[in-house]
Amino acid sequence: MTVAADLDQTYSARKRKWRRAWDSVSIIFRSRVAVVGLSVVFFWVLVAIFAPILAPHSPFAQDSSAVNQGPSALYPLGTDQLGRDILSRLIYGSRTILLLAPISVLCSVALGTLLGLIGGYYGGLIDEVVMRILDAIMAFPTILLYLIIISAIGPSALNVVLAITFVGAPGIARLVRSLTLDIRARDFVAAAKLRGDSDWRIMFVEILPNARGPLIIDAMLRVGYAIFAIGTLGFLGLGLPPPTPDWGGMINEARKYIWTNPLGVLWPAIAISSLVVGLNLFADGLREETTRYQ
Amino acid sequence: MQQARSAPILRVQDLAIAYETRKGDVAAVRNVSFEIRRGETLGIVGESGCGKSTVAFGIVNFLGRNGRITNGRIIFQGQDLVGRSEEELRRLRGDRIAMVYQDPMQALNPSLRIGEQLSEVLVVHRGMKRKEAEDRCIQMLQRVYMPDPANVMRRYPHQLSGGQQQRVVIAMALLNDPALLIMDEPTTALDVTVEAAVLDLVEELQKDFDTAIMYISHNLGVIARVSDRVGVMYAGELVERASVEEVFLRPHHPYTQGLMRCVPRLGMDKASSYLYPIKGRVPPPDHLPPGCIFEPRCPYARPECCQSRPELRQVADGHWARCLFAEEVAQSAWAPPEEVPVRLPVAQATADEKPLLRVRNARTYYEVPSRQIMGRKQVVKAVDGVSVEVRRGQTLGIVGESGCGKTTLVKTIVGMEKPTGGEFEFMGVDISVPVAQRSVEVIRNLQMVFQNPDSTLNPSFSVGQQIAWPLRRFRKVPRNQVRAEVVRLLEMMKLGERYYDRLPRQLSGGEKQRVGIARAIAGLPALVLCDEPVSALDVSVQAAVLNLLLEIQAGLGTTMVFIAHDLSVVRFFCDYIAVMYLGHVVEFGPAEAIYAPPYHPYTEALLSAVPFPDPTVEQKSIRLSGTVPSALNPPSGCRFHTRCPRKLGDICERETPPWQEAGNGHRIFCHIPLDELRKVEAVVVAPRKNEN
Q1: CA dihedral B356, B361, B362, B366 (to 10 degrees)
Q2: How far is B294 from chain A (nearest CA, A)?
Q3: B289 — contact with chain A (CB < 8 Å)?
Q4: Is pLDDT of A294 > 50?
Q5: What is this model's ipTM?
Q6: What is the rounded average pLDDT for all residues in chain B?
Q7: Which of A1, A4, A209 faces B284 most closely, judged by CB atoms?
Q8: What is the pLDDT, as a whole number, of residue A3?
Q9: Nearest CA-CA distance, residue B599 and chain A, Å
Q10: Closest residue by Cα to residue A269 from A233, A243, A235
């Protein structure tokens, strides 16, 4: 019995499972970049969860005596053109964005993964057709696509999710396809095939779990893009219908009064960029750490 | 002259090399001492991870950013190389040490012509004129038997075959007339016949150039053929050092002895002998045992062995071993451990039964797009008219060099490739259809073991889950007993229940391969196809896996088809052997008949090329000229006629040869009359019986 085997035996099966889980989580803490990113994201998540406790005012309450004001004791970040508290709107706005962005990324990952797996696994004509259609979608500038889709189906939370799903899926499909092409050539896939396993099982059980690493990191970056997209749509007036607190919409509304109350634009802009930068730092740090130990 | 001969070119003393890792320094090599004289070849042999290449990289100061020499001296031509700056090293070592690596494609720049790369060596190091340098290069290419060297000079590396590339690399290494040539597994990636030619070349060059050669290999056969003296490495230490005859015939260290017992010797078969794997596994460099490093695995271990690390000491004239009891170990007759059976019950096949698998005139062609636009599609005839059959309980070995179609044949049988034509019958059912159209019963009975241990298991699932799935799928056991059955299979693989929750990345190569075997036999298949199941494994692990397959076969009566390129392993493992060349089977018959005359001329050449781990074996030297023709446009008549040393004449080019029956199911696909072939002497002769 070697030393390594002895060591292994001292752990019970359950302990080993915990250890394994901890090992994968602890990767995050090895990278300072990832930790910084994670704390920023975590900050916003906490803000979103405890919004009713944190917000000093209702996000909809208007104070006609205090319109477009700078920071004061009553309104720490000032008020907007309707006299609503900017801080409270920012806090509630984080709820909207932290709900919509992950949901829309999840949808686009689901759609993109499905298409990528099908194209990569079957190859040939199916692959050709799927990929050319996706190429056609990718040929449009993304902002143009958002505009076309939203103006066609109208602005609403659901439609924002749909638009982001549709625009994001081709990129994910390409990523999954290239991973599939690599993984399907391995022997365990051959073993599954000659065991007569169904194509669906091979795609989702044999191939997909082995593509999860790059896929998770890509999805993380895409949450950042989705936040941008939601912000952009809000700014163009195609996001959530008012008076929903929406960071992009807040910038748009405050834009008209930028000379009288420049802080009204600044606060939501800081909110958007801090969250996106946090997510990107987290994804980058994670990617660096995981590739180093492969 | 005598004086010059005795002075060593390279002397390594107490060398220790450590790599910096996240867990701190890891001593990869410790206490290694040896010397190489002019005109001498020192073979370094050992299993993967034992530090062979690290020593070589240490000598050329190529350890990478995290490696460094922590102790010892490397004296090259009287000058110590350790602790010198890059500039000093360049001056001392100059161009006097050359290195040849395993993969020639890594050593050659793919975007430069061979001529430019070769002559650059001389232009830069020697300040030669371009024209003069080119002439020297052509001479050197001729020297390494490169056909048409002037033409080769104008080609790019990818236009040469693997063997030719390795010749170019060797020629490049020799251009500077080095005093020391380090060869790190230079033939591992090559086919046996090409390997044999490269080994001949190494031997000859060593005589002509009087170079000192350090030859690193994991292959005992190759080491036995090229070396004058041999060093055996284990877990970062040199455990034995002596002349090649001494090491192979009178090994003094238990590890060396163990290695010798792991490889099938000439003429060994499963009915009469057994391979004894070394128990346990190599300790990781950060968990070394306190005493002798081999003690945990040593069959002779005594309490003294745990107390202190033995020194490398002289046990006989010129024979050094790192063992406290080397003399006793060498003297005492080794008794096999009690738990292994001395002889395995070999499954006996009944002769009159219908074959389990019958393949007749199998053809598998691939279409490849033409190089020209609008050109016709070309057809690769990977398998072209192959007929083989396997009876229940038997093992059929398929041998042949890469590209001969053996893997395609197996893939066609399991249904991963669509056959172009021919009859495929398995258990009385036609199986010339892809997997999707086969019945579950056929699928269950036809399973496969793969070559590469790293890709045979799904990295995302635990060992237990992967073995459990085929059990569920084929419904061999009730749902609530699946786990128990998996544990039983794991125990059968000598792994045990504690492997159930492990992930593939926590297993060694041999363990992964065992799990792969367990997964294949989970549904109790009638036929298991093994595609080079042991060729990626170290010899001691290889022996254990082969034993395991034999036990499965004896216990379950499983029939096997076994692909391999190692002819000693095939001889040991198989009952029948099919020799393939360029999509044809050229010889088929019982294993012992294949290894004795009459031979097909190709089999004869293959056998003469196999390196046997015994320096006293006498082997005829038959080297095939040229390279294997392309399967896109195979030669007419007999496909082997372009390279056949016994070619009769026109008839070989014009007519497809007949199958000649040599009795006892032995068939030869050749025009040469059987009586003529019978007169051929045996290719390999073992001069006397060895102790083991």
Answers
A1: 180
A2: 11
A3: yes
A4: no
A5: 0.82
A6: 85
A7: A4
A8: 45
A9: 35
A10: A235
